[in-house]
Design brief:
Helix content is about 45%, strand content about 15%. The model has no long low-confidence stretch (mean pLDDT about 95). A hairpin with a 5-residue loop joins β5 and β6 (about 200-205). It has eight helices and six strands, in the order βααβαβαααβααββ. By secondary structure, it is of the alpha/beta class. α2 (about 30-45) packs across α3. The relative contact order is 0.22. A six-stranded mixed beta sheet has the order 3-2-4-1-5-6.
Length: about 210
């Protein structure tokens, strides 16, 4: 049975400061480091042995993965880094304080930018969740699902929105349902698949 673990990175400095982060390469906080170590301990208790790992090109995801693998004693597995797993690009909002942005543009407009499915934030590079899925899912289905079909046991350390697009696909969520989906920092989500790559179980390790 194929196994896939998804983990959102631990708390980053801009998570702490309540800023739109996107593709800005900010580090983990001390809390984020602790969250990653805790994720490693939770996974260690399951006895999982990974054969391959994937992460984004941003340090907060990469460092989360490193801490987890160090905790597991599994640092010798191949690690693939790809921009396809990067966080959603927040365009001109990147680096802005979320509360100050809401005060400037209004709560309703900021909520639309943050939580709608297909409305991107302002700026040429801004991505909606739909745009993020269009970047992330082809890579996920070709590379990661492809490896699972070969018998690999995989862990992916990525970001809130790239992982939301993956979970939306795996859980067959509607556009409306995915808007209510929140993925916690440093919380492993473990999927098991049958031979036809149909999801047979989903476990969230949050205790």
């Amino acid at each position: 049975m194929a196994s896939l673990t998804l983990v959102r990175h631990g708390q980053s400095q801009w998570n702490l400061e309540n800023r739109f982060t996107g593709w800005v390469d900010v580090p983990l906080t001390e809390k984020g480091i602790a969250e990653a170590a805790r994720a490693g301990e939770l996974l260690k208790a399951t006895g999982v042995a990974y054969t391959k790992a994937y992460t984004s090109e941003l340090q907060r995801a990469q460092n989360t993965l490193t801490i987890i693998l160090e905790t597991l004693g599994q640092t010798d597995i191949p690690v693939v880094r790809d921009v396809a797993l990067n966080e959603r690009h927040y365009g001109d909002l990147q680096g802005l304080d979320k509360a100050e942005t809401a005060a400037k543009y209004g709560d309703e407009q900021v909520h639309i930018w943050r939580r709608s499915y297909d409305v991107p934030p302002p700026g040429d590079e801004g991505e909606s969740l739909k745009d993020t899925a269009a970047r992330t899912l082809p890579y996920f289905n070709e590379q990661i699902i492809g490896d699972l079909k070969k018998g690999e046991t995989i862990i992916v350390a990525a970001h809130g929105n790239s992982l939301r697009s993956i979970v939306m696909d795996l859980d067959k969520l509607t556009r409306e349902q995915v808007l209510e989906l929140n993925i916690g920092t440093g919380v492993p989500i473990v999927y098991e698949f049958d031979e036809a790559m149909k999801v047979v179980s989903k476990t969230i390790l949050d205790s």
